[in-house]
Amino acid sequence: MGRILWHAHTRSKCELRLIEYAPGTRQPAHAHDRDSVTVVLRGDLVEGSEYGEEHASALSVVAKPAGVEHENVFGSSGARTLQIELSRGRRLTTTAMPRASTHWDHAGPACRALLRLIPFLDRTTPQTAESALDELVHRTLAGLTFASASDVPPPPWLIQLRLALEQESTSIAALAKCFGVHPVYLARRFRAQFGVSPVAYRARLRVQRAARTLLAADDPLVTVALDAGYYDQPHMNRQIRAATGLTPRGLRRVSGWIGTPSARGLS
Fold first, then answer.
1. How large is the greatest C-alpha to C-alpha distance in the chain, in angstroms?
2. Dihedral sign, Cα of residue 166, residue 164, residue 26, residue 111
3. Mean predicted confidence (pLDDT) in 130-138
4. DSSP letter for each residue of 6-36
5. Which long-range contacts (CB under 8 A, 24 or more apart) does 169-174 make?
6. Predicted model pTM
7. Which of 169, 194, 217, 222 has the least CB density, counted as fewest CB within 10 Å?
8. Distance from C-alpha of 44 to C-alpha of 98, rounded to nearest angstrom
9. What gap in Å lies between CA 36 and CA 42, rounded to an integer?
């Protein structure tokens, strides 16, 4: 189990938890009895469920309906997550979760929306928490959007393609040739399956690669940018800001948040 760093209830009984997981933590198969949304603030993990295996790291978001059984293995640096569990009987909107299964979004719009919560949470006090927090959380959840993706498990070649996209030295055209399909067909099938184009998916991977380095050490930003595959630091800055709404230094501050003394008294 993870260590709860911060815990709060909203007026309508949504629960928010900031949780730290030690390196190598393994969670056996389990399910939550309420719909939830979780954003990974730092570290990485692998989650397995009936819908397949998902590799997640900083800036990954998962929307999960109640009752979905899953198991988690956390990486060598552990992880920190912000989890929002809805009140009992309340469901995520069909816009936020367009299918009944678990839905992941990596460095996408959902991440940007959830990160905006943290500066507010850092200023929360017992006197203002429940009413103000309730309004903010429900407004955030109502505005979450996830790209529409397929309910059908991906065929093996699409799984292999998604892994191959991590190698930026190989062009999309070269990958299409490798898999024996036309580039247009490849892009269409990938978007239909995962809700995002191969080009956009690769760009999000680069943002996450930069975020992992950015949040794991105090390396100079120019070093982080070049190691992540960007042309220069300004290019990385623009991409991180587009994905998160934050500068790289702002992302470091938000992802390093561990709760304030006043907020920790809310549980």
1. 62
2. positive
3. 78
4. EEEE-TT--EEEEEEE-TT-EEEEE--SS-E
5. 172/198, 172/199
6. 0.88
7. 169
8. 25
9. 19
Phi-psi region of 198 (alpha: psi -120 to 50; beta: other; left: phi over 0): alpha
User: CA dist 232 to 215, 221, 222, 253, 264, Å?
Assistant: 18, 9, 7, 22, 40
Name the residue among 9, 21, 97 with its Cα closest to residue 61.
97
Residue whose entry in the numeric block shows the structure tokens 């990385």: 236
> What six digits make up the tokens of 67?
């009752």
| Cα 221 from chain centre | 22
Identify the three-state secondary structure at position 93.
coil
As a whole number of angstroms, the distance between CA 84 and CA 11 comes to 14
What digits encode the pLDDT tens for the residues 192-232? Answer: 988 889 999 999 999 999 999 999 888 999 999 999 989 99
Could you report how far apart the first and last alpha carbons of the chain are, in Å?
18
Neighbours of 39 (CB within 10 A): 25
Q: Which one-letter amino acid corresponds to residue 116?
A: R
Cβ(38)–Cβ(80) under 8 Å? no
Domains of the chain, start order:
3-148+256-264 (2.60.120.10), 156-244 (1.10.10.60)
